[in-house]
Amino acid sequence: MPGKSTVTVHTDRETHPSRAVAPPIYQTAAFSAQDATTFAAGAVEPRGQDFYTRFGNPNHAQAAAVVAELEGTEAAMVTASGMAAITTAVLALVSSGDHVVGQKSTYGGTASVLLNLLPRLGVSTTLVDQRDPEAFEEALTPKTRMILVETPSNPLLQITDLRAVADLARAHGVLTLADNTFATPLNQRPVDFGIDVVWHSATKYLNGHSDVSAGVLAGPAEILDRIWDTSLLTGATLGPVDAWLLLRGIRTLPLRVPRHNDNGLALAEALSGHPAVTRVHYPGLATHPQHKLAVDQMNGFGGVLSVEFTGGYEMADAFLSRLRYPRRSASLGGVESLAVHPASMWAGMLSDDQITEAVPAGLVRLAAGTEDTADLVADALAAADAVHH
Ligand SMILES: *Cc1c(COP(=O)(O)O)cnc(C)c1O
């Protein structure tokens, strides 16, 4: 089994062989068939490559093949965004009358699927404190079909015990889906702990250059076939150029992630000693309440940290305004550092009450890019000094 850097550079070659060194872009909505039999077969081939781009495209298949190899799954598929991935998956795998368990600390869009979309469709949901494995067990009902986990969670960097949740789910015949966006397959492989399906906002680290919206799902072929069936109806199709850009970004994932890890840890360590800061949430800090669990299931802790300031929202906002390198932006995972006030961003996806439950008002999320560590640390410390009176 080749190493991860070799996988990201070569795994797609057999997926759609060509003599071109860089994969060609199949910018076409449809493919022609030579006869009726081939045409009929193309219409029902899950994640095929040459029928109709909403059904599949060579650029999709190439990016998916690399992600499947990195995540250690039988199959993978790409979607138009991370939200397209999770929404298509839940619509495919649960029905009215079912029950789904998720986390209190989770990406705002995922929280909205759990709190707003699914209940409207007759699927009941329970959100639990992910730090407590027993909370997942207590939430199970005879109708529970699925558990959605996210670790580390956005934006509080709380950790879910993947093995405990996967074992519990398996014992009860419940499917598990893990959002692996923050960790990337370089830092954590959820299927190694028994999770069934992994998904990503590939907009973030997998693409890594803040120039594509994309999602991926990785897991057993039988489950992905069902999700693919529903994706034909949701039309969550990634454009061929974006799939090509995604693969181009993934090529350097193993080079980028260690730098993100170094920068995230350095910023977390520097800011946690600062008098303007009440608390830094970062699983790589020995002071993180779940540091040991993080060490057990992760190889690195990523570029994202969140910071609480002594002066609440005003001080957090002043800090954001003072930063020279991280720009104020909703995304993360690119080569450039970004920073955001999560409570403002979540407002697009959740009601005020739902946000107050999930995100402290004074929290700043920092997403360290791949800049030089010393520059990022000096910048963050200068901004913290400036807001500290
Ligand atoms: C951004 C993000 C998503 C949503 O992905 P999109 O590509 O923006 O649709 C889901 N989960 C996490 C953890 C994210 O950071």
TrEMBL record:
Its cofactor is pyridoxal 5'-phosphate. It holds the Pfam family Cys_Met_Meta_PP. Keywords: Aminotransferase, Ligase, Pyridoxal phosphate, Transferase. GO terms for molecular function: ligase activity; transaminase activity. Gene3D superfamilies: Aspartate Aminotransferase, domain 1, Type I PLP-dependent aspartate aminotransferase-like (Major domain). Belongs to the trans-sulfuration enzymes family. This is PLP-dependent aspartate aminotransferase family protein. It comes from Streptomyces yatensis.
